[in-house]
Amino acid sequence: MRIAPLPVPGVHRAGLGAGPGAAFVAGLVLLALAILTGCGGDASGSDPGNVSGNTSGATRAVKDTDGVSITVPEHPERVVVLSEPTLDGALAVGVTPIGTVAGRGQGGVPNYIADLAADIPILGSVAQPNFEAIGKADPDLILVDGSSVNNNPDVLKALASIAPVVYTGLAGGDWRENFQLTADALNKSDEAAKILEEYDAEAARVRQELAPAWGDKTFAIVRWQGNAPSLILKELPAGVALTDMGLQRPPSQDRMGRGHSDPVSLENLATIDADHMFFGTLGGSSVNNPNAGGGTDVTEAQKALETAEKVPGFTDLVAYRNEGITLVDGSLWTSTGGPILMSRLVANVEEALNK
């Protein structure tokens, strides 16, 4: 059968990968605080919202996702971002961070945004920020969200001893709210508003374009890890993008949930089926091992598909029999991000369905 691969055009509260265990985090935080105190950092236990870190000059107050007021530089110049959504959002409004974390299940920046971020230094992973490296980077602002440190008070305290920390959103939360908070912290709210308007207009254009041929079809988003699939539900960005374009989900995926489903048992393989399937992988990552190595691009998706084809029942799926599987970059389709990710999802869909 013909399987259509899609390259990334040039232009995830739960289910996005668990952070390190509590004991491990506590050990890391104690080490970080010791290092930072030795370097003259403030580890006194003050409210993270009131830590001024390395800031100087004019400041302003912003409210984080919990409504806490944080004092930040009026025009931050040395920004560290510790998640895919905050990296995406910063780049979208024209701010290049001085440091970021590796994408989920990847060794470097998220593959879908590597053309824009490949040269940004890596300061740990989404589940395990490198406190010492972050401190040495000397940021004047740190942006985090629930898809990375998951609002862990000890981690936030360690980070706040370095620079002001703005918590921009919950894992599995509204990507727009995360982006708007990220932009506000960077004093780029006007730019963010324009970007959101442009995204809405593009999604509406593609929705109208696709409706005649695809409006009555169903679309599945599947992440194949190891020997089993998971379903990408409606709250993750890819699910939101399909909704924005008016594309229907099959009943098994037409719901909100934990970002993505638990692995689907092979006895229930039919639940991943639809008229059309976007099929990707996220390297070697899993809920229990979010930092495992591996690729995410369409080449890795092809390898995952070859594994899936050996599973009894997979080749009987409607999407497979009707040549309706599109191979996609898992970092784009099965993880999380911001407006750059959303725009590239729309472009991916338009390209795939107009072939």
Give an overview of the whole structure:
With 355 residues, the protein is of the alpha/beta class. It is 35% helix and 14% strand. A hairpin with a 2-residue loop joins strand 9 (219-225) and strand 10. The chain is globular.
In short:
The chain is α/β, with parallel strands linked by helices and 355 residues long. It has 12 helices and 12 strands. A hairpin with a 2-residue loop joins strand 9 and strand 10.
How many helical elements? Answer: 12
Unreliable spans: 8-55
Number of strands: 12
How do the SSEs run, as a string of H and E? EHEEEHEHEHEHEHHEEHEHHEHH
**Fraction of helical residues:** 25-40%
- Largest sheet: spatial strand order: 1-12-11-9-10
Strand content: 5-15%
- Estimate the mean pLDDT confidence: 84
Structural class assignment:
alpha/beta
Distance between the termini: 15 Å
* Largest sheet, strands/sense/barrel: 5 strands, mixed
Calculate Rg over CA atoms. Answer: 20 Å
- Shape annotation: globular
